[in-house]
Amino acid sequence: MGAQSGRVLERSRRAAAPLAVAAVLGAAVARVAAVDPSRPGAGPYPSCPLLRWTGLYCPACGGLRGLHALTRGDLPAALHANALAVAGYAVFAVLWAGWLLRTLRGGAGMRVPLRAPHWWALAALTLAFTVVRNLPPGAVLAP
Predict the structure, then answer these.
(1) Residue 20 is part of which domain span?
(2) What is the tens place of the pLDDT at every residue in 80-98?
(3) Which burial class, exposed, middle or buried, applies to 139 when counting CB atoms under 10 A from its CB (0-12, 13-18, 19+)?
(4) Within the chain, which residues score under 50 in pLDDT?
(5) Membrane-crossing residues (predicted)?
């Protein structure tokens, strides 16, 4: 085996984990794209237990509808379904791309460069989003 083919093989091996994640998530996104979660009784999508038992929207309510809208190229509908989830999808895509590039360059695996205060701020943002979307003034954030 030549030096060039050895480098290609090594890069392929390093990229296996990020590409496997992309394949699994790609299949899940394809399923959401094919079966509209906003249709009653559509597919295997479970209903939100918090919404069913309390009538309150959880931070993830509308996330699948938002993903479905994104696969159709309808960003306004996606943001209306769940703006926080759409932002999360974008952040995940950037982190995944960084992971892939880092592994192809021979670096360490996936790293999320956040310290404890960042995680607390993210939790506070999620809680605030959940509270506001369940109040009348925040109805625009409800799915």
Answers:
(1) 3-141
(2) 999 999 999 999 999 899 8
(3) exposed
(4) none
(5) 79-99
How far is residue 75 from each of residues 26, 47, 86, measured CA to CA in Å? 19, 23, 9
Number of structural domains, the chain? 1
Helix boundaries (H) for 15-104? 16-34, 49-54, 63-71, 75-104
CA gap 34, 42 in Å, rounded: 10
Question: φ and ψ at 50, to 5 degrees?
Answer: -65, -45
For 3, 13, 79, 92, 130, the CA distances from 85, given in Å and listed in that order, are: 44, 31, 8, 10, 12
The span from the CA of 67 to the CA of 143, in Å, is: 12
Backbone angles phi, psi at 55, to 5 degrees: 80, 5
